[in-house]
Amino acid sequence: MSSIDSTSTSTSPRSFSRCVANWRETEGKGAESERQRISRDIHDSTIQPYIGLKFALEALARKVPPDHPLAKDIGKLVDMTTMEIAGLRRYVNGLKGQLGGKDETLGSILEQKAARFAEIFNIKVSVEVAQEGNVESWLADDICHMMGEALSNIRRHTNALFARVRLTCDSRMLTLEIINPRDRGVALHMFTPRSIAERALALGGRCKVETGSGRYTVVIIEILLLP
Ligand SMILES: Nc1ncnc2c1ncn2[C@@H]1O[C@H](COP(=O)(O)OP(=O)(O)O)[C@@H](O)[C@H]1O
Ligand SMILES: [Mg+2]
Q1: What is the 190 CA–ligand 1 centroid distance (Å)?
Q2: pLDDT at position 36, please?
Q3: What residue's CA is closest to ligand 1, atom 8?
Q4: Which residues in 115-140 are b (16+ Cβ under 10 Å) and which e?
Q5: Residue of 123, 157, 195 to test ligand 1 pocket, by largest number of atoms within 8 Å of CB
Q6: What is the mean pLDDT of residues 124-141?
């Protein structure tokens, strides 16, 4: 896939990345207890109400006969709340420094999230883990958020029926590509996915957008990993 145009939303000086890593390393115990406090707050103020909402929606779904015109939409809302609760739980676990299950890897987390997205929104998503990375849970969580936002952008801003995600991670660099076919008849316009770019920058990395052979849109996230 060749690039005919690209925008780069940040440069990624290694020193900045090192600075971020040092900052994380030296956060110390104060930050640790702060993370624990935030994770408890998110649990109480967000996850619990979401679970309440999910129960209410499930109760509503049971009252609506399966052939009712709203039955499918209500089912989707139940699925969406389930997906959000799973994402919030993962986030809280990330704050506590835990990946989910013992066999969980970044690739498997991305696959699960992409599969849930595909099921809910009827957009086929294939995830290729070209090279699996051994990354810490806070980073896995950030990467997962960025993929979610890129997929959500594809759903909201294009007519694409499929997307591809490609993860490559070696000891030096983590690269995540989210690719979708470009809509026919729509003039080429380059864009910057703002929250993805900001999150990548905060990690000492960058986000760029390329048009693969003019037929695809490729959002590329690169995060420099330190030895
Ligand atoms: N995959 C995509 N294909 C085409 N345009 C996109 C894609 N992703 C994002 N965009 C464009 O980039 C803009 C900025 O995206 P973003 O910063 O995520 O903001 P938002 O999704 O809230 O509009 C979008 O409004 C849209 O015009
Ligand atoms: Mg968006």
Answers
A1: 9
A2: 79
A3: 153
A4: ebbbebbebebebebeeebebebbbb
A5: 157
A6: 88
Pocket of ligand 1, beta carbon within 6 A: 153-154, 156-158, 180, 191, 193-195, 217
Q: Given phi > 0 = left and psi -120 to 50 = alpha, else beta, which region is 213?
A: left
Ligand 1, closest atom to CA 195?
Answer: 17
pLDDT exceeds cutoff 70 at 39: yes
pLDDT tens-place string over residues 180-198: 999 988 777 789 999 999 9
Q: How far is the CA of 98 from the centre of ligand 1 (A)?
A: 31
Please give the pLDDT value at position 190.
Answer: 85
Question: Average model confidence (pLDDT) for the chain?
Answer: 84
- The predicted-structure confidence for 203-217, as pLDDT tens digits, reads as follows 989 999 998 777 999
> If you classify domain 3-224 with CATH, what class do you get?
alpha beta
Pairwise CA distance, residues 9 & 61, whole Å? 44
Domain residue limits, the chain: 3-224
State the pTM of this model: 0.70
d(CA 103, CA 132): 13
Q: For residue 153, give the ligand 1 atom closest to its CA.
A: 8
Q: Which residue has the tokens 């909201």?
A: 156
Tokens of 12: 């990624």
Question: Reduced to 3 states, what is the DSSP secondary structure of residue 213?
Answer: coil
Ligand 1 atom at shortest distance from the alpha carbon of 149: 18
Beta bridge partners of 174: 169, 223
User: With 70 as the cut, is the pLDDT of residue 77 above it?
Assistant: yes
